[in-house]
Amino acid sequence: MHQDIERILYDQAAIARVTKKLGAQLTKDYAGKNPLVICVLKGAMLFMADLVRQIDTHLEMDFLDVSSYQGGTKSTGEVKIIKDLDIPLKNRDVLIVEDIIDTGRTLNYLVNLFKYRQAKSVKICTLLDKPETRVLPVHSDYVGYTVPNAFLVGYGLDYEENYRNLPYVGILKSSVYETK
Ligand code: 5GP
Ligand code: MG
Ligand code: MG
């Protein structure tokens, strides 16, 4: 285990298990629909890569980069689109893939934006949900694990761009950000 990690919450086997379960559900729910599966960069990239390989239907993928964090461990409340989608959403069944829902600001914004762009349906699949810290309402149709209010890293999730490559999700030692 990495020295900056307090505790592992979900190891590779736990992540694989839940990804397979979500993929099976999505395969059923999107059968015959050709959904547009949207990865929210950068955090969701590893989950997206594993999840789509468990969805056995036609689908298309697109990528969007947004930011609500200006580094650090606290949300600033502002959502900024850094890279927009390439594929038009009009009349598409859209599935947003996220790493974690915290305040809900990012997904609340994206769901409204995608509806404004006339998507036929907008659903969310998140690996992790942190319901305690919600500020704006977000309904996630597919949730991997519900997590406590701690700052998590690994499997795509970063602290100042580090730790995304850890193959597990763990709690970052508070000494890592408190000494800065
Ligand atoms: P929200 O807009 O719901 O507050 O959070 C959106 C983004 O904040 C997430 O997609 C994720 O990138 C980041 N975030 C929220 N909680 C955590 C966390 O515990 N660890 C890390 N590394 N990022 C988080
Ligand atoms: Mg994210
Ligand atoms: Mg981040």
UniProtKB/TrEMBL annotation:
It catalyses: GMP + diphosphate = guanine + 5-phospho-alpha-D-ribose 1-diphosphate; IMP + diphosphate = hypoxanthine + 5-phospho-alpha-D-ribose 1-diphosphate. The keyword Glycoprotein does not apply. It is found in: Cytoplasm. GO terms for cellular component: cytosol. Transmembrane segments: none annotated. Residues 9-159 form the Phosphoribosyltransferase domain. Pathway: Purine metabolism; IMP biosynthesis via salvage pathway; IMP from hypoxanthine: step 1/1; Purine metabolism; GMP biosynthesis via salvage pathway; GMP from guanine: step 1/1. GO terms for biological process: GMP salvage; guanine salvage; hypoxanthine metabolic process; IMP salvage; purine ribonucleoside salvage. CDD domains: PRTases_typeI. Its EC number is 2.4.2.8. Keywords: Cytoplasm, Glycosyltransferase, Magnesium, Metal-binding, Nucleotide-binding, Purine salvage, Transferase. SUPFAM superfamilies: PRTase-like. Its cofactor is Mg(2+). GO terms for molecular function: guanine phosphoribosyltransferase activity; hypoxanthine phosphoribosyltransferase activity; magnesium ion binding; nucleotide binding. Gene3D superfamilies: 3.40.50.2020. Purine salvage pathway enzyme that catalyzes the transfer of the ribosyl-5-phosphate group from 5-phospho-alpha-D-ribose 1-diphosphate (PRPP) to the N9 position of the 6-oxopurines hypoxanthine and guanine to form the corresponding ribonucleotides IMP (inosine 5'-monophosphate) and GMP (guanosine 5'-monophosphate), with the release of PPi. Belongs to the purine/pyrimidine phosphoribosyltransferase family. This is Hypoxanthine phosphoribosyltransferase.
